[in-house]
Amino acid sequence: MTEQTSSDKAPKAQKINGVRGMNDLLPGDAAQWFHLEHVFRDLTRAYGYEFLRTPIVEATAVFQRGIGEVTDIVEKEMYSFEDRLNGEQLTLRPEGTAALVRAVIENNLLYEGPKRLWYSGPMFRHERPQRGRYRQFHQFGIEALGFAGPDIDAEIILMGQRLWDELGLKGVRLEINSLGQAPERAEHRAALVVYFEQHRDLLDEDSVRRLGTNPLRILDSKNPAMQELIEGAPKLLDFLGEESLKHFEGVQTLLKANNIPCKINPRLVRGLDYYNLTVFEWITEELGAQGTIAGGGRYDPLIERMGGKAATACGWAMGMERVLELMKVSGSLPEPQAQCDVFVLHQGGETLITALVVAERLRSAGIDVILFCPADGQTASFKSQMKKADASGASYAVIIGPDELAKNEAQLKDLRGTGNQQAIPLDGVVEGVIDAIVGATE
Ligand code: HAM
């Protein structure tokens, strides 16, 4: 055999990195996500919401039509591509609502009456990544379809408040506004155009363009140089008719009756074009620029606009990354959990075979087990195995060495409480561990 010199070696393969703004969920953080998912699922169950999952990819038209052509999302942020196998125009979903409405229409889900639905999953927007803003992020959302009254607007807001309370979030405030109905917005729009035309020299390039297409979006601008101008613009609330005001007041009365404080923000217009009447956002100052942890509102025009039979709807979605970040800041993240209940140690050979059988028996009894597995395929000293057992967070170690095997026994060691170690018969390991667990919890 010829010896390989370093010059014969193939060049070290270059590593390939993940896509900018798209993050891995690493094992150390997984428990936090599971916790959030768990609390959210319980919440949806408490309010009678059913789960609906749509694909990650939709026809581009779903979002163009649903969210609106003149929005940041559709104009600049969508991951759209042509499926080169069949020429279809597709988009990675930037949000869940338009896709859910597409699915509801396609599957005729409102046939039997109104529906309360929830969803979760990754969304994609080509934004400039920064803290709390990613290109792949994750949303939880709820949508209540077919309910017209302010009671459902209030219910979904109450759900949000309950969620923040259960997650232990601090410093979240609710801002709310009404976007009225299309004719009211048209009147407001005309007034906005007159106002912004008078101050055209103060508008940035984007806003000049939007003056002709969607002047309401100018109110959404984050450009600091335009804030004073925006502050002085005509307010949509002043253009609302009796019905719209009644709905808005109805929502506020119900929130007040449930002690939910909210601030009316006449500038809150949301970044998507499907809304009417109530819109709202939950905002925190703790996360810097990306402080909106959730937002939503009523979107009565959308179902018909997407080709369905006209039906009312409202909902909201939260950004999981932002909520988890706020939980961190609020000190309410759950304690890291143990990986298993029992860690099984052995010395290879016959002891490994027995250890494997014992581990399986324990699992059949509902006990979570990690069986020591040496990295090099050999074995390791009990001392180094014990370090791993400790690090796993297991409450008990079951030790099976050649001496134990010879006596048909195992050693059961309490790793967290007393530290006691005792011999137990091999065929009584499951009972021994259960007795120890029950004894420790009594
Ligand atoms: P949205 O305000 O675009 O609304 O997004 C909802 C939430 O998703 C935001 O409040 C934020 O927490 C999170 N989010 C948005 N973009 C990013 C990003 N680039 N990185 C991290 N988090 C982000 C909607 O998507 C509507 N579909 C909500 C809705 C449901 N309205 C009615 N029903």
UniProtKB/TrEMBL annotation:
The keyword Metal-binding does not apply. Pfam families: HGTP_anticodon, tRNA-synt_His. PROSITE patterns: AA_TRNA_LIGASE_II. GO terms for biological process: histidyl-tRNA aminoacylation. Its EC number is 6.1.1.21. L-histidine binds at E95, G96, T97, R125, Q139, E143, R270, Y274, Y275. Homodimer. NCBIfam families: hisS (TIGR00442). This is Histidine--tRNA ligase. It comes from Polynucleobacter meluiroseus. The gene is hisS.
